[in-house]
Amino acid sequence: MFERFTRDARAVVIGAIEHAERAGEERVDEPHVLLALLDREGSRAAFALAALGLTGQREAVVRDLAEARRRGGLSRADTDALAGLGVDVAEIVSRIEEAHGEGVLAAGRQGGARRSGRRPFTRGAKDLLTMSLRTALAHDDRHIGDEHLLLALTARPGVPAEVLADHGVTHESVERVLWGKGETKAG
Question: Which of 21, 64, 66, 173 has CA atoms 20 to 30 A from the CA of 167?
Fold first, then answer.
């Protein structure tokens, strides 16, 4: 499938791998893809993110992703659902961190030096890449661009979509910016 990726989409995938490496993560996951999308300039996804006002909010997005990682990767929707069952995730995280150290629940972390080699993608990240293909095909595009990766991120439930929505970037708003009727569109 990688041969169907445009230069911009390939740069996002490579950037996601680099984000995982810098963070000492064992595997590449969806938040790494989001961070790589935020690094892009001059692409369709970068245009959409800028048009939706995400430019200049990178640090806030990074902070929101880190907070979700601290909760073990749970989204607020997950946390709210557990609260409905009487489970206080914040209290559990506090107790675990008190006993085992801050950030211990950060999913996918490795405790020491990492062996060199390829970082595999999580199931969620693989599903994201597959969804980006479906998104491209739904728009009659033969190649997968970084805009399709962004759309797939906004369409999948989970932390990246939640963080993007908190900053005004939803599936519908990205669709409107990229393929809207009579509105500002990416060229």
Answer: 21
pLDDT tens-digit series, residues 39-70: 999 999 999 999 999 988 999 999 999 888 88
| Per-residue b or e along 137-169, where b marks 16 or more CB atoms closer than 10 Å to that residue's CB | eeeeeeebbbbbbbbbbbbbebbbbbbbeebeb
Closest by CA to 49, choosing from 35, 37, 60, 62, is: 37
pLDDT at 3 over 50: yes
Taking Cα atoms as reference points, which of 167, 140, 177 lies closest to residue 44? 177
> Among 19, 28, 3, which residue's Cα sits nearest to residue 126?
28
Give the whole-angstrom CA distance, residue 167 versus residue 61: 8
CA 168, CA 28: separation in Å to the nearest integer? 25
Assigned token pair, 174:
């990205």
15 membership: H or E segment, kind and range: helix 7-22
Instruction: Kindly report, residue by residue over 147-156, the tens digit of the pLDDT.
Output: 999 999 999 9
Rounded Cα gap, residues 135 and 186, in angstroms: 16
55: tokens are 């430019």
Tell me, what DSSP letter sits at residue 178?
H
User: Which residues touch 12 (CB under 8 Å, ≥6 apart)?
Assistant: 33, 36, 37, 40, 45, 146, 149
Domains and CATH numbers, the chain: 2-111+157-179 (1.10.1780)
